[in-house]
């Protein structure tokens, strides 16, 4: 049987190829949970918009993006020639958003997809403190392959609807979807909820990640890699790597809420005031060109209310 496997990132590739699981492989090297995504049904328009944004905001060379990311994903144009497609995506936000994009992209390429299955896990009996499939040994893949879950038409519809909501400038539809449950896509709702918590909070403008950093630094100074290790242990729902966390730290340093001395990070007096709801982080951090999916953060009224655990809209000062 001709299988096409889609892996999220290169970390799993070597072990997967050594596993003996049959089939061809395509790698999704995106980070769709970061930055702007354009609501469009035209993949060419989408990739052009995405490439421009990543180059301007994240310093990722446009040609490198097309070579490493787009050209690899364009191999999916032959997906209809396979007898089955298997997605290998983990439980966290990083993986779940990439999974949504891959399903959107596949359905934009052909109206007659072969059966699509998914392998999605959030733990493994042989791996304590499981964080992702990159921790798996080759012998772990064949049993997971046999346990894959076939996605039904309603699952594909849910994925398409959720991706469309993720790309919209208002988060209310996505919030409704984040409360849905799906036996075949069991991690999707929780991941979307984690995404919404990245909106600035009503209380002080900090999102959940920024709040975590300041809260830990309030207890004492941290070397940056120790702080990241704490984040990966306690906030693994996000699935962010060094690159994304470095961006957060740099923004927080520029805003003046943390400072860095060599490898050591500490909270500033402003950071303490923000964490104590005496100041608002939004007044100090630049939101220019900042996006969460389809939400452009500058002049956005959307906030996360930690008390009621809901998205709310505030009235912006003129």
Structural write-up:
This protein is 41% helix and 15% strand. It has twelve helices and 13 strands. It is of the alpha/beta class and 318 residues long. The strands form four sheets. A five-stranded mixed beta sheet has the order 2-1-4-5-6. Strands 3-10-11 form a three-stranded mixed beta sheet. Helix 2 (43-58) runs antiparallel to helix 3 (62-73), helix 6 (153-166) packs antiparallel against helix 7 and helix 7 runs antiparallel to helix 8 (188-196). The radius of gyration is 20 Å and the shape is globular. The longest helix is centred in the N-terminal third of the chain and has 17 residues, at 93-109. The protein folds into two domains: 3-181, Dna Topoisomerase Vi A Subunit, Chain: A, domain 2, CATH 3.40.1360; 208-313, Arc Repressor Mutant, subunit A. A hairpin with a 2-residue loop joins strand 8 and strand 9 (264-267). It has helices spanning 13-17, 43-58, 62-73, 93-109, 141-146, 153-166, 172-178, 188-196, 208-218, 224-234, 242-255, 269-275, and strands at 3-8, 24-28, 35-36, 84-88, 116-119, 149-150, 222-223, 258-261, 264-267, 291-293, 295-296, 302-305, 310-313.
